[in-house]
Design a protein that fits this description.
This protein is an all-alpha fold. The protein has one domain. It is built from ten helices and no strands. The termini are far apart.
């Protein structure tokens, strides 16, 4: 079998030699030792170690803010016994949903370093937002639990209102809300090419402030953007679609949990 002339750089065709000699505007030769990585469209297949990693993330998240937190809340303002099991089960399912986003984004960073095309679709960025917000939320919960075990914040708040502590907690939450909105706006402006997906992240930024109603509107915008992608046959990978449906599931969970809590408070079932 004859070797290709491209196997030997000294035997390049004349057209290739001329093209290589023509300078390109804005291009500079890479520094010595640079490794070229060609991006690949295909994502790695699901492996057993991916599931092991997901299990580890779920275990850590449940350990920080899992069913035991719901049990403590029930001890102070108990739900009816039937709803306690529902609350614990839904909390575990919600934690698993968030853990999948964290695991996928962590692997996505590793895949990106190997040349796999990740962080290229809107669904990828939905996973990033879910993962970042989840890590920050559980980190805040961990810090609060450590502070509570040292200074007894919960006990002191029950007997004496510490306005300085209230200001610190509310100020921290306000900074988190502002940062979350800014992050959503950045993704909408810089990372989304289609207007429909820019609207999705814009509405998602509003939903950070206006819960329930904002989540319902976000579900409608997500379904509309997904339908347009299907109709126009826009190429998307399976992790994009997982990010879309995961966001829809989280919005539905928030809406249902909030409405159930309101219904129990209004009916007087909460605290019996």
């Amino acid at each position: 079998m004859n070797n290709s002339p491209f196997d030997n750089p000294d035997e390049l065709p004349q057209e290739a030699t001329i093209a290589a000699a023509v300078p390109i505007a804005g291009w500079a030769p890479p520094p010595p030792g640079t490794t070229w990585i060609a991006e690949s469209e295909s994502l790695p297949p699901l492996r057993l170690h991916h599931l092991f990693s997901l299990t580890a993330v779920v275990a850590v998240m449940l350990g920080i803010n899992g069913p035991q937190q719901a049990a403590q809340m029930n001890a102070q303002n108990p739900f009816p016994r039937g709803w306690q099991s529902v609350l614990v089960a839904s909390n575990v399912v919600y934690t698993i949903m968030l853990a999948t986003a964290i695991t996928i984004v962590a692997y996505g960073i590793a895949w990106r370093r190997r040349g796999v095309r990740f962080f290229h679709h809107p669904g990828h960025w939905l996973l990033v937002v879910i993962a970042v917000m989840s890590v920050l939320m559980w980190l805040f919960g961990l810090i609060y639990r450590i502070a509570d075990s040292i200074w007894g914040i919960t006990r002191s708040m029950a007997t004496n209102i510490d306005w300085n502590l209230i200001l610190i907690l509310n100020g921290t939450m306000l900074v988190g809300v502002i940062a979350s909105i800014a992050f959503h706006v950045y993704i909408a402006v810089k990372k989304c090419d289609e207007t429909r997906w820019r609207w999705v992240f814009g509405v998602k930024a509003v939903a950070v402030i206006i819960r329930v109603l904002g989540d319902l509107v976000l579900i409608m915008f997500l379904l509309r953007a997904a339908r347009v992608d299907r109709r126009t046959q826009t190429p998307r990978d399976f992790l994009h679609w997982y990010g879309v449906w995961l966001q829809i599931a989280i919005c539905a969970y928030i809406v249902i949990a909030t409405l159930m809590t309101i219904a129990m408070v209004v009916s007087g079932m909460y605290g019996r």
